[in-house]
Amino acid sequence: MENSVEQTHNNVSGDLVGRDKYVIQTVMTSKARSAIRLEEDFFINSDDDNSTLLRKLKDGKTNGMTRTRAITSKLSAMKIIFQLNKSEEGKRILADIYENLLTCVSRVTMPMEDGELLKHKSDDIFSHFPALVSRYEDIIEIDEAFLEGLLYIATSNCAIRWKVE
């Protein structure tokens, strides 16, 4: 008697039958109770015409629709940033969020090789956004769209490159 198993559209022979495995990973982050940055060390470099942003996105071989969305996203985030910058506590919270966003991007880019494009890892970056939103939900109302805009502001600030070098 032969050891075989018939599956839909498959005939598997042998002693072992493999199955798809689903791994669900829960990421736990600590909640922020207040800003831990003592100074307001978040600055936006002047990139009025978005030339730095567009150049870095083009270097990363992003398409035109992504580049247009980046500009819109950046401008939307700027409106929120101007509101946050009205208070010292808001400035410190913004610096915290910015630093934590850069840390998330760093986790994604660290194992990448020179020449790799960040656009291929954008889902990995965006997957960190819900945890960041949740982390700050008790002290400030932000959403994933704000974090996307902040990501493009960081690109304009030369803190993020879309082609690893």
UniProtKB/TrEMBL annotation:
Name of the protein in question: Uncharacterized protein
UniProt organism field: Paenibacillus septentrionalis
